[in-house]
Specification:
One of its GO terms (molecular function) is actin filament binding. With about 625 residues, this protein is an all-beta fold. It contains no helices and 59 strands. The relative contact order is 0.08.
């Protein structure tokens, strides 16, 4: 095959303040899974850099859970669709799809034989259903609540029991199958956020926004005790997870702590203090084998250290919102990827290291998954475009009306290196000699040595994208009118060369080849046009293939190939000398169009998208 996926840097969980986030565990103990947007993300628990993304839901997915057999996953979305799909094949083939009720699915539970499924959430007339996995036939009734049901669990040993927790401040206890309502448990004074049976089935726990955790007998539903007496946490508790041996319980709370409880003696064993920022609130947790995971409101996944509660063993960082742009840079023999996201932050992950733009920006070592953060305060709005200049600084422009120069050795967002612009920038390009050209709404700005030195106001057209020739003497500006205009850099000014290059539609991106011999221009009319610089920018060749607007392109270091990404979710790798020879990557980021791409080397292409993930591809010709 001319291409194969090399690495996937997955997005973080999508989180919301005051709402618990469910992390699903793998019965075999190898993976964990969570949701972001329309995606279900599966990650290796020992090496989270190994990831897989399931993207078949048409609506935002809320929860996903492995079947106890480990062969299937059930995932539920905001429309009430439940999809049951295969985990063993790469394609994740759909086995069954059901609509238990119309409304958001909030939690899912399987019986230990993987044959029955309970689903709860925000239905219009009913808040839950329990049915056979292969036919959808009902095996009981979920009743006893008058508000949204947040959580459900089924005892993993016979005789089966089922418990639910709801916004009506109550839990409900069921016996079955067929599951029948037995009684309501009214020990909590606020929303019940999470209910979980111990793996051995002897007990179950309920956790609530009132800061309490109650333990009950798994078979009879009798109250055994309240952990920590009147209060287990100082804030609402969003999630609980039992230890594999059923003796301890991990809890995650809005008071910015997670705790391990010894249930037999009703005492706290360990308190993990996660920080003092509101983003350190704990919304989810998972105890799998020896791993203890928690999810912060920042979206970060924390691997908790029982031996050192004040500092996690590792923190998985990344993007949780759509990524707009990326660039690559080699430094000290290592290849870095920098990506800029919708929330205005810059992250780093690497081939050895890669860097991504998000929260405080941070970088990842892609081999080990190790990461660290940029320091300081970055952009305050969406990062539109970025590139790296000759002095090794990351140059980024954002909807906050600034261009920033960030030192990639220090990885520090300092107050220096910020250029405030009069209008919002759309695109930035750099050339030798300290030049930066910024295309803004109705304006073109030339910067030299991080200072504004020239601007073209009201150029008579709407500039969209910009590229600087590698020699630094020529600037190409692409516009919405379907033309590319050329400007020469003369000292501290731009001179219009009076030359129009015609694309086939509104220009969406353009780039010079690394040797400066060609200029590639892509447009909204699904065409890439390549101009030959040496022949006075004569049209060299035209490339057709995309089925929708092309949004980005990038030249390979070999100057013979270039890649384009479009709204049709396709990535094409084109051969300059033969427009008919191409590598077609279909559904590169399924259900999301490719927003940016770049080359790490002649055979490694990096793509990113609104699914908040970054992918590395190996291309062979």
């Amino acid at each position: 095959m001319p291409y194969e996926i090399k690495k996937v840097f997955a997005s973080l969980p999508q989180v919301e303040r005051g709402v618990s986030k469910i992390i699903g565990g793998d019965p075999k103990g190898n993976n964990f899974l969570y949701t972001n947007g329309k995606c279900v993300i599966l990650r290796n628990i020992d090496n989270p850099a190994l990831a897989d993304i399931y993207t078949e839901h048409a609506h935002q997915v809320v929860v996903a859970k492995y079947a106890p057999s480990g062969f299937y996953i059930a995932s539920g979305d905001v429309s009430g669709k439940l999809r049951i799909w295969d985990t063993t094949q790469k394609e994740h083939l759909l086995k069954y799809e059901y609509q238990p009720f119309a409304g958001k699915i909030k939690d899912i539970a399987w019986t230990e034989d993987s044959k029955r499924i309970a689903v709860v959430g925000e239905g219009r007339s009913e808040f839950g259903a329990v049915f056979l996995w292969d036919s959808g036939s009902s095996v009981g009734e979920i009743m006893g609540h008058n508000k949204v049901i947040n959580s459900v669990d089924i005892k993993q040993t016979r005789p089966y029991r089922l418990v639910t927790g709801s916004d009506d401040n109550c839990a409900a206890f069921f016996e079955g199958p067929p599951f029948k309502f037995k009684f309501t448990i009214g020990d909590h004074s606020r929303f019940v956020n999470c209910v979980r049976f111990s793996p051995d089935g002897n007990r179950f726990a309920t956790a609530s926004a009132d800061g309490q955790i109650h333990i009950y007998d798994g078979k009879t539903g009798e109250n055994v005790c309240a952990l920590g007496g009147s209060k287990a946490h100082d804030g609402g508790i969003y999630a609980i997870s039992w230890s594999p041996d059923s003796t301890h319980l991990l809890s995650a709370s809005g008071d910015k702590t997670s705790k391990i409880w010894d249930v037999n003696v009703n005492s706290v064993v360990t308190t993990f203090t996660m920080g003092s920022n509101v983003l350190d609130q704990q919304l989810g947790c998972l105890w799998q084998k020896d791993h203890l995971l928690s999810i912060s409101l920042s979206g970060y996944i924390n691997y908790l250290d029982k031996n050192n509660p004040s500092k996690p063993l590792r923190v998985i960082k990344g993007h949780s919102k759509s990524i707009q742009c990326l660039t690559v840079h080699k430094n000290g023999g290592k290849s870095y990827i920098y990506s800029g996201s919708h929330d205005g932050h810059i992250n780093p992950p690497i081939l050895e290291v890669r860097l991504f733009l998000n929260r405080p920006p941070h970088y990842w070592d892609s081999e080990t998954g190790e990461n660290d953060s940029f320091t300081g305060k970055g952009h305050t709005n969406q990062v539109s475009r970025m590139t790296v200049d000759e002095s090794g600084q990351l140059v980024s422009c954002s909807m906050d009306d600034t261009v920033r120069y960030t030192n990639l050795t220090l990885r520090d967002y300092s107050g220096q290196g910020v250029v405030k612009l009069d209008v919002q920038p759309k695109c930035v390009a750099v050339g030798p000699g300290g030049y930066t050209v910024v295309v803004c709404i109705g304006q073109i700005v030339l910067l030299k040595d991080q200072k504004k030195c020239f601007s073209i106001d009201s150029p008579g057209y709407e500039p969209e994208v910009v590229a600087v020739h590698p020699s630094g003497d020529m600037v190409a500006v692409g516009a919405t009118d379907g033309n590319v205009r050329l400007y020469s850099i003369l000292g501290s000014s731009l001179k219009d060369e009076g030359k129009l290059l015609e694309a086939k539609g509104p220009v969406t991106d353009l780039a010079y080849s690394h040797d400066g011999a060609f200029l590639a221009v892509c447009d909204a009319s699904k065409v890439v046009t390549v101009f030959s610089v040496a022949d006075g920018y004569a049209e060299n060749s035209v490339f057709y293939g995309h089925h929708a607007k092309i949004v980005c392109l990038a030249w390979s270091p070999d100057n013979e190939h270039f890649a384009s990404g479009g709204m049709d979710m396709m990535v094409y790798v084109w051969t300059l000398s033969d427009p008919e020879t191409r590598v077609k990557i279909q559904d590169a980021h399924r259900l999301h169009h490719v927003s940016s791409l770049a080359w790490l080397d002649e055979h490694t292409l990096v793509t990113t998208s609104h699914d908040a993930s970054v992918k590395e591809w190996t291309i062979s010709y």
